[in-house]
Amino acid sequence: xxxxxxxxxxxxxxxxxxxxxxxxxxxxxxxxxxxxxxxxxxxxxxxxxxxxxxxxxxxxxxxxxxxxxxxxxxxxxxxxxxxxxxxxxxxxxxxxxxxxxxxxxxxxxxxxxxxxxxxxxxxxxxxxxxxxxxxxxxxxxxxxxxxxxxxxxxxxxxxxxxxxxxxxxxxxxxxxxxxxxxxxxxxxxxxxxxxxxxxxxxxxxxxxxxxxxxxxxxxxxxxxxxxxxxxxxxxxxxxxxxxxxxxxxxxxxxxxxxxxxxxxxxxxxxxxxxxxxxxxxxxxxxxxxxxxxxxxxxxxxxxxxxxxxxxxxxxxxxxxxxxxxxxxxxxxxxxxxxxxxxxxxxxxxxxxxx
Amino acid sequence: xxxxxxxxxxxxxxxxxxxxxxxxxxxxxxxxxxxxxxxxxxxxxxxxxxxxxxxxxxxxxxxxxxxxxxxxxxxxxxxxxxxxxxxxxxxxxxxxxxxxxxxxxxxxxxxxxxxxxxxxxxxxxxxxxxxxxxxxxxxxxxxxxxxxxxxxxxxxxxxxxxxxxxxxxxxxxxxxxxxxxxxxxxxxxxxxxxxxxxxxxxxxxxxxxxxxxxxxxxxxxxxxxxxxxxxxxxxxxxxxxxxxxxxxxxxxxxxxxxxxxxxxxxxxxxxxxxxxxxxxxxxxxxxxxxxxxxxxxxxxxxxxxxxxxxxxxxxxxxxxxxxxxxxxxxxxxxxxxxxxxxxxxxxxxxxxxx
Lengths: 354, 354
Description:
Chain A is built from 14 helices and 11 strands. By secondary structure, chain A is α/β, with parallel strands linked by helices.
């Protein structure tokens, strides 16, 4: 087992076995894959013991990697976060409690997103240096993967939040994408210095005066996400959430129309069959399972959200993301990054007196 | 000629002949197409007379529809809006002056976007009832075209601005898409009532208490743009600009990868040839020229921005959008829509006392 912190106990990750549309089967199938990829990992599997025991017995690698902890309840997908906070015996809560209690370095759940975010913030708590945690994930671009944050944890953000997101995005890209010097862009409506609101202009000035300056590309625009202009794109959670869903929607529309085109005639069906091996690679490349696993970053422990509808491969990818962050001690990197930032008061003061 | 307003003079539209990457040739070729589509239209063609005269002589339909007005200067594509405001003899300025002076109902330019927006706001001026004009355009969805606004004219918006955008979007969809009862969505990070910030929640309450209530769908998310969930999507200009460019970027990435797939082997090339007629229809459907023509809406006259790099077909489409709005008296509809809204003070007061 690879502990992120010497204080951390017996488990790399706690797993909410009961969250997600196809739980617990898809979760256990995902762990069977993950256990092969991470042979030394040890998982705390939280859920209904009577259900999990026979399923685990049929999955030898997962069985070896997992210890079951019983939870008699599960958070329904439509439960409000405020209600979910009151369910103390849910699989999600017990898994998160294991992170808060430092038994595990992180948690992975495919369950109720709002509940997971709320429980993460309230039970695991933010790093002392961080004002607000952010939701981060990886997306595809023409030049490799790109880290996007915040994707919706913070609807209203100030310049300080955006700067902290840059520090966290930098640590994320180093840990998960393995980039030694990730470039960072700040989302705006144009790349010129005078574009945007006061908030993004101030964040840009603060980043230019920080140790991240060398890797700070400046402002980027929406099309820079898929162009791969930078490795990390920082934005407020409202913009990030809309951008992510808009991009996903555009790809879905294109994919649907492409399918219609190929089935529209006998000749185009034949054309599809001939081009199929190449198109299958395209499909694999765009496969949302490859990008599964959004991380609530900036907490005293990792909280990773897997898509609720994903299958075993998607869940295994979310576990990969979590394991990369644990192994590479992403929180230690965030702490170092924040410690190296100039004092926020000083940075703001120097800007307002300029 | 179809006048929007009995006071409006001799021209339907003023055309900036010198704006855009391929001006004036692409502009004149576009007008040759537009003149065929709108046989009764009369255009004021503004630009260098010595250049335009011989080009027009070779395009008989455009020549019949156009009257040249000489402008000795052109606004460069990289000129700052503040500098462009001082160039009184530019083709863009003289064309806009013709709208402000009610000689023409609107202007179409493929030139410098920032300059056109600034000149539009300052020279043509907002409708008295409108706090801020918005940039609106049409995008593709799985269920037909969708009107999107604001796409970047207003970086910071309040609830009142969003409500005004809904009124303008409604008028736009009726005029350009010909929809008798366009449905309206308000962009947010989730569809539940409690999602988002104070601003979008207040705008939603105001819309529910307005004559638009019957067509107001409530909150929508990023993926609803291409899903075609509603006919009009209202958002602040920062979000709209990022969403538009993110969606365009995603389609470009997919298109590029698809092209790579088809050229990756001999078999896939053959497959492409067989499926080509169907794929050509897909290409036509996604053709950005079909969506060319962003309108600065809410002014005392139409200001339509054509993409700078477009060709004759794209420019002709921007003229189509402008002509649809002139013919359908979109500004009269906006005025009617705003007059029917409950007083903003009343709407706000009833919300704060609830």
